[in-house]
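User:
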Amino acid sequence: MELDHKHGKARVRVARVWRGSPEKIVEWNVSVVLNSHSLAAYTHGDNSAIVATDTIKNTVYVIAKQCKEPLSVEQFGILLARHFLSLYSEVTGVKVNIVENPWQRVEIDGVPHHHGK
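Assistant: Predicted structure:
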């Protein structure tokens, strides 16, 4: 008997800056849900098939930092899903939800400030 279990981490806030001309800044709110076969967690108290929430959160941060070029929320979501599916054999599916918050520079006297939001 297999049990498809869902677990994950919600509300991971990511701010990412890509330096250059023009500078690109994003703010994302990321949620990751992993599906895994985890019957042993219920029958034997074995949580080895469960990816810890802190691991999920820190993975989101590491993958964001590794992105050297600006990318869309869709591209970032695909990178996250591929990572979890390829690294954890017990993970059978991944759902990533990303909300991008609008980011706009503060203008002072009609001129965008060089580091203010």
